[in-house]
Amino acid sequence: RATATMGEVPEPSPQAPLAVLSKVELRVSCKHLLDRDTLNKSDPCVLLLMQSQGQWMEVDRSEVIKSNLNPVFAKIFTVDYYFEEVQKLRFEVYDSHGHASVGTHDDDFLGGMECTVGQIVAQKRVTKPLFLKYGKFAGKSTITVISEEISGNNGYVELAFRAKKLDDKDLFSKSDPFLEIYRIDDDRSEQLVYRTEVSARAGCGPRPPRRLPTPAEPLAPQVVKNNLSPIWEPFKVSLNSLCSCEEKRKLRCVVWDYDSRGKHDFIGEFFTTFEEMQKAMGENKVQWDCMNPKYKIKKRNYKNSGVVVLLDLKIHRVYSFLDYIMGGCQIHFTVAIDFTASNGDPRNSCSLHYINPYQPNEYLKALVAVGEICQDYDSDKKFSALGFGARIPPKYEVSHDFAINFNPDNDECEGIQGVVESYQSCLPKIQLYGPTNVAPIISKVARVAADEERTKEASQYFILLILTDGVVTDMADTREAIVRASYLPMSIIIVGVGNADFTDMQILDGDDGILRSPKGEPVLRDIVQFVPFREFKNASPTALAKCVLAEVPKQVVEYYSYKAFPPRCPQPETPDSNLSSPQ
């Protein structure tokens, strides 16, 4: 959000697009590095590489730390973050003999580690062993990467100030005071954050009608005329603008006596922080002496040039997708596979379910493309895998929500590979049948999501991936189920497999209008994304994942914002024991 220094920050609009792209800062440290130098300890440096089109490209490198086998690097790596992509990173540690030569000699290589941006973001802190070439451990060497989102706007704050007994600077009348707030940046420069404007008022009478300036009219400070105890209008500023989202950052507040020629008279100033301002929340008030340094030196009994009071402070937080993920929110992934007869006999090479030993079918391609993204955000790496539209053993009755591992008490599989294996092993055991009913599966996942909602915490969000070869038969029930699910922490992705006419499926997407139940009730949120797989048949698997998952971060934020659930407190950072194998 662009913020004018002298205007109000508007409240977030429900219709305003939410930014999905974030920037993430990565901080790196190592322990127990190999000692490559004969006389001294290694001089380590870290290179960050990112995979692009199958090639590793250097993004940045750290400083060189002299003679240290347990370095903590000051360099902060900044990377763009996209939820819908698998962003592969590689960290390489070298013993440097001059910065230009880093990475040029095999003997200087102290070890490398690969991971994804998603893994680091989901866990906040990842510790992994360093490996030399050919998967050999680099002794006991480890590397730790800590992530932190660069918060572009973590909400805004509403402030209400007044002053009492200000110095009178006018000869024939009282002062016309206005207030300015400056943020003091790291280089000690000052940035104007806010100047009291438009609708300030004097005393406690009714507020005058508000008149906004025309675009060509300069926004002059609105002063309170002839009043040494003014009450300024409440105003809003973003936390990023006010204090760079740092509560302890120093702020300078200045009170002036307005002069129409621009030669405003200095009344006094005071210094504070947002941390101190927050004491004014609730019934409390905070006040500061408004000081004129010159008077303080010249006048022996000088006390102040008035008092400024913060009457009220209200914080309006605006959280991002990463705030929720870094707060410990898990993404639970469920896949539902269409086993209706229209797919064709799996033993026939023309079937959409045919298992080709040399190339995965469209169901597997879609499953893996989407699942590989989601698995980084689920700590136990277990995924529910369901089927519908088939006759299943032992009685071979038609089921529209069966576990493809045939364990009704636990439909979860170990990782994406576990889902793939369960899918392949179940095909010979079932009879493809019909019809294509998906409402039962949507309702099943919704029941689990409803249980999660009752916790009133942002702890689990559910993604249901439905893979189907045709238009759903139970359209009315499906619309009803989606409307109910739109009130719950879940999103639905539907991928149309094969060459069927999926025109009617676009109704469920809601992009061209608001999806409604048969009774006319609209969805609370647009939670469905539908795409035909054939549009990505000749593209890379990542293209499909980008398309169907791009909306998920926005949907997560919309749901928790609607429920007013803040991110959970981040869990204590502990080394990750599940990421210790070579890549």
TrEMBL record:
Record InterPro entries: C2_dom, C2_domain_sf, C2B_Copine, Copine, Copine_C, VWF_A, vWFA_dom_sf
PROSITE patterns named among the record's database cross-references: C2, VWFA
Pfam families: C2, Copine
Keyword Hydrolase: no
CDD domains in the cross-refs: C2A_Copine (cd04048), C2B_Copine (cd04047), vWA_copine_like (cd01459)
GO biological process: cellular response to calcium ion
UniProt key word Repeat: yes
Entry superkingdom: Eukaryota
Domain VWFA: 332-531
GO function terms (MF aspect): calcium-dependent phospholipid binding
One GO CC annotation: plasma membrane
Keywords: Repeat
Domain annotation C2: ranges: 5-130, 137-289
Family: Belongs to the copine family.
Designated name of the protein: CPNE7 protein
UniProt gene name: Cpne7
